[in-house]
Amino acid sequence: MGLFTTSAPGTPFGVQAPLLEINQYPLWGTYVALALYFTELAGMLMAIIAVFQLKGYSSMSRKGSVAVFASAILALLFFDMDLGRPTAGFYSPFSAILNFLHSWMARGIIFVGGLLLFSFVFMVLNLFFTNDKVLGIRVNTLKNTVAILGLLSGIFSTVYSGFELAATTGVPFWNNGALPLLYLGDGIFVGAAVSYILAFFTKGEEGGRARIITTKLLAFSSISVLASWFLFLATVNFINVFDEVAYNLLITSSSFAFDIGLTFVTLGVSGILTVPYYVRFSSSVKTTNDLSNKVKYLMLAIALIALVAGYLTRADVLFVGQAAYQLAPMTPFQLTSTQPVPIGAFGWRG
């Protein structure tokens, strides 16, 4: 049930509904945390790689297309593992279309499914089509078009996975507008980390420029993550004691401290290393189109650290919010214990 423990059966906390004892056991665990993590990774990595494609970074585009598709597959795989019904997971996009208007989960699946589709087409175009034209259309034009569609799907799937929690009625701890912003910043954070790893193995001038760009992006995105964390924690809705319990669980947990510490390390190192590329007016700074060899390997370690921190960000919010949910699954929105479970699911989970 994740990194946190919650109340045991029979506790006086929460709604003790005889038919909906959802506060008696965990709803989500590591599978969902990993699914959310790979959703943001695939989504924002697609957005970053799409920009590289539009700027003519062909090698980064080719490597990134494979990484994006693999991440999207992992996201859907972990969602499917959590559902416990592989056939239902396979047909979930079709069910999602039918339930699109009234289910937040359905809308999220459509976005992730679109990301999977566009990333697959983008990967195929990059790996197998080297001719000038396909069906009378220039290959580069097709790549750019699919890249833009993938960029939009990536942003929607990343932000909406945060919105799914923030807007879900009955989960007061998550009812926070800063959550989609935190998930978007975290998605850029881990997307930049993977982009740097890809750039690390890219040769030539393209690789050098890509390493500088992704190092800068890591610095800026770490600032975004820290600012979003502050905004989220500063606006937690203390409408009842259960939010306070979850808040205290979060700020006193070792994983949260570890997460914030790793993010600060990423900011400190990547921020300091990018300073020379902004201080062009200084005569003592030598203009270069690549990082030094030592800095390359240092930033590789920082990128790996960022990947760990990015996972902890989503996992911490998920598990702590679940703790509040299990203590009081329907408060303050549910008035009676006969109301349905407000999680937007449509009968998949086995």
- Low-pLDDT stretches: 1-25, 279-286, 330-350
CATH class: Mainly Alpha
Looking at CATH, which topology would you report? Formate dehydrogenase/DMSO reductase fold
Number of strands: 2
User: What's the order of the H and E elements?
Assistant: HHHHHEEHHHHHH
Radius of gyration: 22 Å
Q: Could you give a short account of the major beta sheet? A: 2 strands, antiparallel
Q: Give the overall pLDDT as a whole number.
A: 77
Q: How much beta, percentage-wise? A: under 5%
Structural class comes to: mainly alpha
Whole-number count of domains: 1
Q: Which of globular, elongated, flat, extended, rod-shaped describes the shape?
A: flat
Count of DSSP helices?
Answer: 11
How is the largest sheet built, in terms of strand order? Answer: 1-2
The second-level CATH architecture is Up-down Bundle
C-alpha termini separation: 17 Å
CATH-defined superfamily: Formate dehydrogenase/DMSO reductase domain
Considering DSSP H and I runs of 4 or more, what fraction of the residues is helical? 55-70%
In words, what does this structure look like?
It is a single chain. 68% of the residues lie in helices and 1% in strands. With 350 residues, it is mainly α. It has a single domain, classed as Formate dehydrogenase/DMSO reductase domain (Formate dehydrogenase/DMSO reductase fold). A two-stranded antiparallel sheet has the order 1-2. Strand 1 and strand 2 form a beta hairpin. Residues 1-25, 279-286 and 330-350 have low confidence and may be disordered.
